[in-house]
Input
Amino acid sequence: MNTSTHEESSPLQQLMALAAEHTQQLHFEQCEAAETAAADHIYRRYPTTLQSLIDTHDWTGHPAVTANQLPPSASAFLGEGLWLVHRTFHDGQVDELRLLVPCSCGDGYDDVLLDGEQDLLDMVSLITQHHARMPHCHPEDCASLPDSRPAAG
Output
């Protein structure tokens, strides 16, 4: 008799396997939807800048983080350590695009909410003067988010 793995496992193990498959499919769908929403937002709000520079395939989707109440998101690497992060809120009614810029002190990233092409161009003009870093005068002025990458060593 040919039995499958599901037939040999307990009901709980089978339920756990089904739940894992469901979660994997849900994460895939969330990531795909986040990538599409980001590309659509860029198309609508950044037609003369980002639209011609970032394609749908440049976005990487991320599933929701329910523990932190964060919706699915998508990120795109711009180069020089800069990232775009897109999220939608209120069932897709509100889009948010943020630019993550390395801090000049090297301790993390500044998170800048963008409200259209003028904000983007103003921010890029500012950081261009500082070698693609967010400037601040004194360490105590740093408003960056900690860099969570593991230390080399």
User: Anything to note?
Assistant: Residues 10-146 form one domain. The first strand starts at residue 60 and ends at 62. The longest helix spans residues 11-45. The chain is about 35% helix and 25% strand.
